[in-house]
Design a protein that fits this description.
alpha+beta, Resuscitation-promoting factor rpfb fold, four-stranded antiparallel β-sheet, 22 strands, elongated, G5 domain-containing protein, signal
């Protein structure tokens, strides 16, 4: 009986003690939530940057409402992609003012903000190109927007696309890939898969400098030029800007027309391009069966870029005639077959996501002058011919200094005497005027 009474007293004592502890801890919070308080906030307490020190809850709520309205009028949230600005609508952001009456004392508290990830995702899909939208972290972008709004930042706020990229999505495929087939005479390529170029934002890339920095010693000068030409072709399908490019005087045999790159460290001939974007890209190379390839990885471009060789104009060569008295009458030698000159116009076509052309730019006009045809004729056969046409140039007879052009050895003194007959002397006088350079003709 005594044990039962003791147990009952003990249980009552435990319950009373628990009740007193609960009231002492939760009572003030419960009371303040149901009874209006006239107390003020402590010194240094802020809400979204608004100093509410010494204010009551009602006063703080009024001031905060005014602050939010001012923020909606003045604030700018800019989302920038490769130089293009997109402005997030502030109407999508809700402030739950009723929940802000119990901020932590002595610090700057964020204003509770309501912004759904689905709303941000919808705005992105309606305004941003699909390829770029696919690599954006929408949840992270939502957090950044809410962070700006929760502290009522009045100054214009910039959020770059590079800050909210899904890193794994950038390596799933190449933005641009170019392949160049090799001829049988250029198949001895070493593995170039270890060669890579990091293209930092707002940076200038020197091809020769990168080759030196990476210690590329296994590639010949011709192979380096072919690699630079392949890089140039790739660059033309990006927003990168070509700052320096050189090409030769004769039509290339190992590089495509319009895409030739002539490199020479001794002559200070380099290939240089510039990345105007705020994004970093990675340029890699690889050796393929029968070819080489260049690949570019990074954030998709805002626009699409295409390279187009618009036209190739040809300029016929002239015919340069030379005369040699040592040739058999009626014969001629061809010293140079000649080839036409060419003018190649290369354009860059910029299109938006719908395929509409935004801009067409003339990138380069490569001119290769014609190689003139050179013919060496016998004299007597051509003395009675008419004056040279507009496409022909006549030069004086080939003397002893030009005998290497005819493939014959210089004549001996006896041969000279035999050739100096009266007939030949008369013929030379008759056509002496032909040896003169026609007025206005190109030599």
């Amino acid at each position: 009986m005594n044990s039962q009474r003791f147990a009952m007293y003990f249980i009552m004592l435990v319950l009373c003690t628990s009740f007193m502890l609960t009231v002492s801890q939760l009572g003030p919070i419960f009371f303040s939530s149901i009874v209006p308080s006239s107390s003020t906030y402590e010194e240094g307490t802020k809400l979204g940057g608004l100093d509410i020190s010494g204010m009551t809850r009602e006063e703080a709520a009024t001031q905060l409402t005014n602050k939010v309205n001012e923020w909606r009028e003045a604030a700018i949230i800019e989302f920038r992609i490769q130089g293009e600005a997109y402005f997030f609508p502030k109407d999508e952001i809700r402030f739950t003012v009723d929940e802000t009456y119990n901020p932590t004392s002595g610090i700057n508290n964020p204003v509770p903000v309501g912004l759904e990830v689905s709303n941000v995702d919808k705005w992105i899909k309606e305004n941003i190109p699909t390829e770029i939208a696919s690599v954006l972290d929408i949840e992270l972008l939502t957090v950044k927007i809410k962070e700006v709004a929760s502290f009522l930042v009045a100054e214009p706020t910039l959020i770059r696309a590079e800050e909210v990229l899904v890193a794994s999505a950038l390596t799933e495929s190449y933005l641009v890939e170019k392949v160049r087939l090799l001829t049988s005479s250029n198949e001895n390529w070493t593995d170039i898969s270890t060669l890579s170029i990091t293209i930092d934002p707002k940076s200038t890339i020197s091809f020769l400098q990168k080759m030196e920095e990476d210690g590329v010693t296994d590639l010949s000068e011709i192979q380096q030029e072919m690699l630079a030409s392949l890089t140039y072709e790739l660059v033309l399908e990006t927003p990168f800007e070509v700052r320096e490019r050189n090409y030769g005087r004769t039509e290339p045999t190992l590089q495509p027309l319009g895409l030739e790159v002539d490199l020479s460290e001794a002559l200070n001939k380099d290939f240089v391009f510039y990345n105007p974007t705020e994004t970093s890209y990675e340029l890699t190379f690889s050796t393929l069966p029968g070819g080489i390839a260049a690949q570019l990885s990074g954030m998709p471009f805002l626009f699409s870029y295409e390279m187009e060789i618009r036209q190739i104009q040809e300029f016929p060569p002239r015919i340069i005639k030379q005369f040699n008295p040592l040739l058999t009458i009626g014969t001629k030698n061809i010293l140079e077959e000649g080839s036409p000159g060419k003018l190649i116009s290369v354009y860059q076509i910029i299109q938006d996501e719908s395929g509409a052309i935004v801009e067409e730019k003339l990138v380069s006009e490569d001119f290769y002058p014609p190689v003139h045809r050179i013919e060496v004729h016998s004299i007597l056969n051509d003395l009675v011919s008419s004056a040279p046409s507009s496409s022909e140039t006549v030069t004086p007879p080939v003397d002893e200094q030009n005998n290497e052009d005819t493939g014959r050895n210089p004549p001996s003194n006896e041969e000279k005497d035999r050739n100096n007959s009266a007939e030949n002397e008369s013929s030379r006088k008759e056509v002496e005027v032909i040896w003169e350079e026609p007025a206005g003709e190109e030599k």
